Amino acid sequence: MELKTPAERKPASVAFKKMDKIVLNDLARGAVLLAALWDESYVKAGRPKIGAYKSYKYPFTVEFVMPDYFEIPAEPKKEK
Questions:
Q1: Is 46 domain-assigned?
Q2: 23 lies in which domain range?
Q3: What angle do CA 54, 59, 60 make, to 5 degrees?
Q4: First vs last Cα of the chain: how many Å apart?
Q5: 68 in a structural domain
Q6: What is the pLDDT of residues 46-65, one digit of tens each?
Q7: Is residue 56 part of a domain?
Q8: What mean pLDDT value characterizes the chain?
Q9: Model confidence band, residue 70 (pLDDT cutoffs 50, 70, 90)
Q10: Dihedral angle at the C-alpha atoms of 13, 19, 22, 27, nearest 10 degrees?
């Protein structure tokens, strides 16, 4: 027979005080590794010139994709 008991968790404010140095260390390590990854990628790509790059301009246009996350009511036919 298996008994399920809920986990006993302390409030986040209490746990944060114990874990903040570990979390801060992991976040810093992740930031350094991500920066190194971007630098290495840039060098391996041949140091392309990116000064004129516009992140908001795309060289293509996509077709309209109808959202499917809500119902669109059918319009009633109008009689003449």
A1: yes
A2: 10-51
A3: 135
A4: 71
A5: no
A6: 998 888 877 777 777 778 87
A7: no
A8: 85
A9: confident
A10: -30
